[in-house]
Amino acid sequence: MLAFAMPPGFTRDQVAAIAALAHLELDSSELDLFARQLGSILAHADDVQQVDTTGVPPTASVVTRHASERLDERQVSLDIADTLANTPDPDRSQVEGGFFKVPRVIE
Amino acid sequence: MTGGPSPVQEIRDAVRSRARSAGDVCRDALSRIVATNPQLNAFNTVAAERALARAEAIDRDLDRWRDAPLTGVPVAIKDNLCTAGLRTTASSRMLESYVPPYDATAVAHLEAAGAVVVGKTNCDEFAMGSSNENSAFGPVHNPWALDRIPGGTSGGSAAPVAARLAPLALGSDTGGSIRQPAALCGVVGLKPTYGRVSRYGLIAHASSLDQVGPMTLTVRDAAIALHVLAGADAADATSAPEPVPDYAAALTGDIRGVRVGVPRRLLDQGVDAEVSHALAAAFDALTARGATLVDVELPHARYAIPVYYLVSTAEASSNLARYDGVRYGFRSNPESGTRNQELHSMYAHTRALGFGAEVKRRIMLGTYVLSAGYYDAYYLKAQQVRTLILRDYDQAFGGADAVDVIAMPTSPTPAFRIGERIQDPLQMYLADVFTVSANLAGLPALSVPCGFTAGRLPIGLQLTGRRFDESTLLRIADAYERDTEWSTYIPPITNR
Predict the structure, then answer these.
(1) Which among B21, B56, B68, B256 is placed 20 to 30 Å from B297, CA to CA?
(2) Residue of A nearest to B301 (CA)
(3) What is the pTM (predicted TM-score) of this model?
(4) Does domain B7-256 have CATH number 3.40.718.10?
(5) A37 in a domain, yes or no?
């Protein structure tokens, strides 16, 4: 029932590809470390692959009853100044005209 | 320990009757925090001015707080719960200077009940860990042995309760993060049923598992706190509409006829001998009060750790995608002002510098198990086995031979030494072997002190109950507590 072969370990290239998906820059030592550790952690998950789950539905949430729906009414949301106050740049050069600024996307 | 008011009741009643002012109580707590925190490193932020202003406001307007359940009670808040105007870091460099514009619902409930927030407590970064060593602000030290971990991830909430710096702290529990540090520091920790307490304003780790709960010196105080915290919240669609009972009223001391399930097969391996011994003595105390022990089988519990680390890292990798350096938190600006910085490298560099090693490891693992080609084999499979784990509990609580609670140790070992497991993530993950199942199944579970090792390290008894039946958990734990004196033992650091 095992349709999937465990990767024996991860190469640096595979780790780099996962890091790119996660928008995470890794240095050379981290590539080596995670190549080793991700393989050993996932090897521990090998047991899970052996469990017969034929016809078993997945559980994504254990919520059985939701709180009652709220009315679709306008409510006060966060103040613009309060929201912009946490901008990452202390000299506030990343805020302009009520917007957050990011590096140029289109040349 | 019998009779007498609990620490929370004692403070509340004294402030209400003007025997002590809230200001005095607050100054007393703050001076103890200032004296002890350099050794414990339990607080990321001590909110002295804010706390005193609040306490004095309560004193000035005491009539308004005459019937409040937590009047003047100092509380410590885990630093992954938002506090309006008070720095909230999740112990991450990423949020080192983040000041939330709003309060978490749990915090708002405590303050509305008269509590005084004295500070924000250290934890594992983004609540990922089992030892409180993964903090950008350094590890928390166990008040019973300063060279040992306090447990994680709410170690900074457990330590000040144990050291008598505050009688109540809030923690959060994704895989044992309230219960395990409670056990290792010798205090009571309650993870409520999923949905019992609003998660609004809790910095998300794994949203289908996270739950906020109290850490206290006594079971009665946990009951009082849960009554304040629990209830539906329009701001959290997963919060539950179930009515909130008077938990303290359920503490009758009567547990005759209660059926306590013991998963003996699960306890056969990997449990420290002193922990097993304390557990056996706790079982004797429960049966002496009229409870019956029943063997239960949880056949899929042995898969709980890998299932937990597949599900929680998948959810975490998604939740932590929001930290991109744009709207709040840390932003890397290597070439600020030049035209060379490109948006995607800004994201990747910000995340490289803002996150610690364990957070990166979990983002990587979660990204991988959600990625095309591996989703079915890992994430979907884990969710299916999660269903089987849940069914095991349904069977134990609802089958022909149904039990009322299931008892286990909270942690397989007492507190280990700082640095002992930090290089081996897999060893660290195994510390959660008895706690993660309750999160996967959404069940309430608590840890209550049940003894000490020969080396004076606390041991915890864990009880897991039926969904929304915190009352039974609390009633049994309170009855047990009445026959023991563990909660009256004070760690050496407090006597100095």
Answers:
(1) B256
(2) A48
(3) 0.96
(4) no
(5) yes
